[in-house]
Amino acid sequence: MTDTTLSMQDLLTAAQGPLLEPESFQSTLINNLTRTLLRDNRPPCLLRAPTGSGKTFMLARVLANISSETGVVWFWFVPFVNLVAQTLDALKSNASDLTPTTLGLGRNQQPAGGQVMIATTQSVARAQWRNKGYDADGDDDTRTIAEWVKLARSQPLKIGLVVDEAHIALDKATEFGKFAQWLNPDFLLLATATPKDQRLLQFMDSAGKSDYESFAVSRDDVVEARLNKRYIEAVIYDLGQSLQSVADLKRTVLRQAWKRNQQLKQSLAEKNIPLTPLLLVQVANGDKTVEEAEQDLIQLCKVPPGAIGKHSADDPDPVMMAAIASDSSKEVLIFKQSAGTGFDAPRAFVLASTKPVNDPDFAMQFIGRVMRVALAMRQAYPDKTVRLPEELDSAYVYLADASAQRGFEQAVQAASLVKSELEGQTEKLLPRRMASGAVVLTNKPTPQLPLSYETSTVLHRELKAAEGENDLPHPTTTGPQIDLFAAATDDQPLDEWQSLALRQVRSTAKPAPSAPRTQAEWVSHLAKHEIRAYPRRKDLPAVPVALQAERKPAFTQMTAISRSVAVKLDIPIHLADNAIRAARNQLKDTERHTELTSGQFHDEKVLIVTDRNALAKEARLALSALPQTEEEDINEILAVLASRLLPMVRAKFEDFDPDQVPEEKQLQRMARDAANWVAKQQAPILAEALHAEIAAQAETFTAQPLPDAMLFASALPLSKSPRNLYGVLPPHKDEVSQLDQLLLSDDRALLRDSDWQLEDGTLRAGNYDSTAALNNEELAFAKALDRSEFVRWWHRNPDRKPYSVRLVRGEHKNNFYPDFVICLEHYPGDEPLLRLIETKHDSKDAARKAKHIPTFYGKVLFLTQDQKQMKWVNDNGSLGEVVDLDDLSKLQDWLRKTRPTQTDI
After folding, report:
1. CB atoms near residue 752 (< 10 Å)
2. Rounded CA gap, 323 and 333, in Å?
3. Is 6 helix (H, G, I), strand (E, B) or coil?
4. Are residues 78 and 207 in the same domain?
5. Angle subtended at Cα 875 by Cα 874 and Cα 880, rounded to the nearest 5 degrees
6. Which of 353, 384, 416 is the last residue of a domain?
7. Which distant-in-sequence residues (6+ apart) come within 8 Å of 515 by Cβ?
8. Where would I find the Helicase ATP-binding domain in this sequence (predicted)?
9. Residue 582 belongs to what domain range?
């Protein structure tokens, strides 16, 4: 069996890692884990600790302690091949009293106490081996696992099993669990970086374990020990609509990440810290991805070629990765996603990811590459009561795909939920049925120590019954109470005493929660049920306690033509300027920095690299939609536009030194790119406007108070919004539909509109349900509001809530709930007023609703999607002008012209 691609020389080398001295929390955990594992009933033990907290070191010392007390041989399993070499080095450095090797080599050696055989879980999670009792792959020169285990037990030696990085290693939890059950280890020790993981629970069940002892250390403790950086900053790009499809975010990320790395290098030098920061660049798997990133760094970022290290192979080479990570002459390490986990690079502060990473487990692995604190930093600041400079105590993750941030947010959130439990606690496995009918295992703390840690027949049958595989027989006999964990034969039915004992186990595992008394307890209470509260912001102007609503009153030849069009096309100065900026990679847009542990964020305007190929494609696609146009016509239009723009391009370099002016061929290329930009922006212009009329004679009243906070599942973190009343973009409709699969029924019961009576007053909670969710068009408009300076704040108005804005429809019995309430200035210095905007699919329905103008809010603005553009609707139902989501000044002007004359009730 081959576990790694490492050579024998690599495996027999001396330890390369530093010899560690344990931190206080590490010593406590090592001692408590050792004492627990050495108890007479030898419980399984689980260590929960953040990435970079020294899990491998602590596990190694526990193994050494136990091996000094009794003869034990150990199986140590990891999720990735490159972690085999890393674990070998760690054991050689910090456990000289152990004998580490690989499983491929070790099983041909004579078993001896303290021997540790390291492999990947995939190497033994094989059904064909299980069917042959793991006695399947031997020959004259290779001993099977079954033969080696039999030999070890005959000496006699005990068997220990370690599963490191269990939250990833147990991807095939059931099959590996069957191997563990066959192995029947005397000692079972697992380590994970997450607070809860269904795969881990499935493994425990398939391994025949019903209970285990858990130990944990929080990220806060690890940060205070200077093992982890305090802050984790994710950087994404929130682009306007005109840039979204033509921005080259991969190259933008490389440029911005290298810029950050150079800033850190300067900061370290100013503080006399002998450390060269390392920029990690993670690219997609493929033949040319590493080389393409290298060329971009050299040509675009001006990185010296000698400062770039790269790992081009698809299979990870841990020796090469470690060598580059420790070579201070290298300032960049480029690697593929497949080689992106399990190597240590403490001098790395910045990770540039050009490949989406949405799985939280893998996201945490990537964060772990930049989260560790280098020894030079710890030596420069020996007093742990003095905080490190914030910029040097931060890990930076630059993401080319904004959607990848969610995976990193979930990873950090999961790590933050781990609370220190250095003394250990018993956790029990219980089956629970979801609303969909699926059965999942849950782990609940219990104060009672079990008599045995093996899965009882009672609980095993209960799980099978919940899965619909077997029904529990009715009690037919009575008798004295028996051992709850005693085995029952197939012909021995469960009696009433066993059923009562089972109910008592459940009762102990699920104590009734106490009601929260303060806002802090309320937030914590919701978090335990995987619900997050988003409070209403108090830093916004003119936010009323409640909104105004309405109720019904009490009483009842083409080339020539194409050339002519291109010649006459009006190219405004600002459009020409933006087009040339796009051609020169000088368009600016929003770079959003989010500190993932606190959720705080800030925006910066940075230069965005333009994808020339995508821009040309977009321009041709837009021009191909023009009537009767062919390829020749498109070429003519673009050629004319490029000729018109070329003098403007030359003018941009009038003040440059002659040796800095681009060659004529390059200037013409820029003019061509600028022509593509103009064609893309101007092709879909239409001349129509919006007019509306709403029925009259409605009474205005004050709706119920707005919620103090809005609730949503914490597994789906909402994106930050600088101008939303609750600080976030409401969820997408697709996200709301996932709630039934993400939350248990008990948790979903808390996810509703409700009033909470707390010591400091009544707290009103709202629910981001389907009535408040956004579709794609509404989400694009909400982001445009966030970018508009005249908008002070905005609120998503849900349907049929007692606190919603509702308007009377003069032609229909139903009420009307506009989608957006916006607080804005109609002109600079104007008093901010509330206005209403509705997005509609049916322009005729909008015209009917527009017949009534509410006195308080003034004329409602109706927007509708037409093809790929958003337009407003005229009073007669026809479509009006295009709403440019990059510049809502026309929308502001429309609202100014319809500004209400009466704003008080």
Report:
1. 11
2. 11
3. coil
4. yes
5. 5
6. 416
7. none
8. 36-213
9. 558-586+611-682
Residue 101: which pLDDT band, with cuts at 50, 70 and 90? very high
pLDDT grade for 473, boundaries at 50, 70 and 90: very low
DSSP 8-class letter at 392: G
Average the pLDDT over 456-460 and give the result. Answer: 46
Would you say 214 and 420 are in contact if contact means Cβ atoms under 8 Å apart? no
Residues 6 or more apart whose Cβ sits within 8 Å of residue 277: 261, 264, 265, 268, 331, 347, 348, 349, 350
Last residue of a domain, one of 371, 400, 416: 416
Query: What is the rounded CA–CA span in Å between residue 780 and residue 342?
Result: 38
Instruction: Specify the pLDDT at position 505.
Output: 34
Same domain, 756 and 645: no
> Does residue 382 fall inside a structural domain?
yes
**ω before 304 within 30° of 0 (cis)?**
no
Residue 179 lies in a domain: yes
Structure tokens at 453: 């840690």
24 and 108 co-located in one domain: yes
CB 662 within 8 A of CB 829: no
For residue 140, being part of any structural domain is answered with yes
Q: What's the pTM value of the predicted model, to 2 decimals?
A: 0.65
Q: Note whether 100 and 244 are same-domain residues.
A: no
Q: Are residues 218 and 327 in the same domain?
A: no
Q: Could you give the C-alpha distances from 534 to 201, 432, 725, 766, in angstroms and in order?
A: 31, 29, 10, 10
Average pLDDT over residues 2-7: 42
- How far, CA to CA in Å, does 49 sit from each of 32, 191, 215, 621? 15, 7, 9, 52
Same domain, 751 and 843: yes
| Sequence-ordered alpha helix ranges (H) in 245-387 | 249-270, 289-299, 318-326, 360-371, 375-380
In 596-657, at which residue ranges do the beta strands (DSSP E only) sit?
601-608
Which CATH number characterizes residue 399's domain?
3.40.50.300
pLDDT per residue over 731-788, tens digit each?
999 999 989 888 888 888 899 899 999 988 999 999 999 999 999 999 999 999 999 9
Structural contact between residues 606 and 588, judged by C-beta atoms closer than 8 angstroms? yes
Query: 727, 733 in Cβ contact below 8 A?
Result: no
Asked if 73 contacts 112 with a C-beta cutoff of 8 angstroms, the reply is yes
Q: Is residue 529 part of a domain?
A: no
Q: Domain check: are 257 and 218 in the same one?
A: no
Total structural domains in the chain? 5
- How far, in Å, CA of 195 to CA of 418, rounded? 5
Q: How many residues does the chain have?
A: 905
> Rounded distance, CA 898 to CA 196, Å?
54
